[in-house]
Amino acid sequence: MTPCPHLLDRIMAVMEAAFDPAYGEAWNRRQVADALTLSSTHALVVDGEGQPIAEGNASGRAPAGFVLSRHVLDEEELLLIAVVPEARRRGIGAILIGQLFAAAGARGITRIYLEMRRGNPALGLYQRLGFEPIGERPNYYRMANGERIDAITFGRSI
Ligand SMILES: CC(C)(COP(=O)(O)OP(=O)(O)OC[C@H]1O[C@@H](n2cnc3c(N)ncnc32)[C@H](O)[C@@H]1OP(=O)(O)O)[C@@H](O)C(=O)NCCC(=O)NCCS
Question: What is the 58 CA–ligand 1 centroid distance (Å)?
Fold first, then answer.
């Protein structure tokens, strides 16, 4: 299925503002578009108040954050979460994850996973929301300067 262009535009607007290029974590438009063609991929976009922006609407509200996830059977992986810098630390990240829990629960998901580079300050958010570290992949990420960083995997039952 072709992804809604509004949805792609909104995700990419947040993506480009939110990720530090030094870490090479951002996805490009093609990667997001390909992911969205799969029925197992789910995207939520919110505005600066944390209110959902519905997928098909030509809304005038600027997107401030998104979460992208993919399920396999009854497990879901949080692939990416991002909030634009000017809207951070106001609870939007927590709202996005809360909405993901609700949507995933409604899909029959029982467990959510995510992977984070060691040192990402998002750790505080994940811990606060009940994610527990379950594994590490040494030197998994490669930074733009070639340096390697460990990945830490977290899980949480819902
Ligand atoms: C991670 C991210 C989505 C959090 O969004 P947010 O809207 O600021 O999240 P919330 O306001 O709900 O929670 C903020 C909490 O996250 C943690 N946190 C996130 N970024 C932080 C930072 N730069 N410095 C300190 N704490 C930070 C803290 O625990 C903070 O809680 P506090 O404000 O009470 O101290 C946002 O920082 C972001 O887009 N980062 C860049 C992209 C990224 O690294 N995504 C995660 C990997 S996919």
Answer: 28
| Torsion sign across C-alpha atoms 35, 37, 4, 48 | negative
Residues with CB under 6 A from ligand 1: 18-19, 80-83, 88-94, 116, 120-122, 124-125
Q: Mention the CATH class of domain 5-157.
A: alpha beta
- Between CA 94 and CA 91 the distance in angstroms is 5
**Cβ atoms 78, 112 nearer than 8 A:** yes
Angle between helices 29-36 and 5-18 (to 10 degrees): 140
Q: How far apart are CA 139 and CA 151, in angstroms?
A: 7
Half-sphere exposure (CA, 13 Å, Cβ side) for 125? 20
Beta bridge partners of 117: 151
Asked about 113 being catalytic, the answer comes back as: no
Question: What is the Cα–Cα distance from 40 to 4, expressed in whole angstroms?
Answer: 16
Residue 102's pLDDT is 97
For 63-99, write each residue's pLDDT tens digit.
999 999 999 999 999 999 999 999 999 999 999 999 9
